[in-house]
Amino acid sequence: MSTLLELSGVSVSFDGFKAINNLSFQIGEPEMRAIIGPNGAGKTTFMDIITGKTRPDEGRVLWGEKGVSLLSMSESQIAQAGIGRKFQKPTVFEAQTVRENLAMALKNKRGPFDVLFYRKSAEGAARIDAIAEEIGLTSDLARPAGELSHGQKQWLEIGMLLAQDPRLLLVDEPAAGMTPSEREHTTDLLKRAAQTRAVVVVEHDMEFVRRLDCKVTVLHEGSVLAEGRLDHVTQNKDVIDVYLGR
Ligand code: ADP
């Protein structure tokens, strides 16, 4: 497993308040990582820094085997480099079918020029079918996305991100509002996605984090408080104190 993304000594202040404070973080490829931490710990700001939405005041954010700085890249260049982000609320095109939604997201690895052709080609259709199977929506391909359940919309959006073949997928609270069986499906889906890429999941639901069965990074006051397996970090005295509000 080689390092895909490395943050070191990163700090961000908002009006003098340090939302991220000398944070260092590494993720490999492939790898699954869960980020936990109380409200205000800096989880959203951390993701915003990676995607270029928020620029740090200090520190380095390096990407890929060549260690290219993401700080000199625009948000769209960062997305093009292979970083996909899923926000908590699903944003799919409700009036379009599941197939159309996936087709719109499909990225042509051969270059941008024949992307419209690729989306309609047999190769593109086969890729859409494969993603639909991956996310469990094969029998829903012809349905308008607006008819899907909340859980299905979340999977469709994950599928739309997978269609862009990111090397790093950032996912914000994927299990929120899901039924237990939907959660199980989401766990399986993310675990499969993490077999070939880096996946970072920000999640409050500890049972969901347990099922992800991966290394966990605990954020607190903008820094990494603890890192390791869930059983290990939940026994850490500092982590217990933070979660019990001591
Ligand atoms: P989390 O996602 O873990 O709840 P956030 O990254 O949203 O934490 O926020 C970390 C801290 O930074 C919080 O105290 C929050 O109020 C503050 N913060 C985040 N964004 C801004 C902003 N744009 N302006 C001022 N303060 C902010």
From TrEMBL:
Protein name: Urea ABC transporter ATP-binding protein UrtD
InterPro entries: AAA+_ATPase, ABC_AA/LPS_Transport, ABC_transporter-like_ATP-bd, ABC_transptr_urea_ATP-bd_UrtD, P-loop_NTPase
Keywords in alphabetical order: ATP-binding, Nucleotide-binding, Transport
Organism encoding this protein: Thetidibacter halocola
Alphabetized PROSITE patterns for the sequence: ABC_TRANSPORTER_2
CDD domains, per database record: ABC_Mj1267_LivG_branched
Pfam families recorded: ABC_tran
Cellular component terms per the entry's GO annotation: plasma membrane
GO-annotated molecular function: ATP binding; ATP hydrolysis activity
SMART domains to which the protein is assigned, alphabetical: AAA (SM00382)
Domain ABC transporter: 5-246
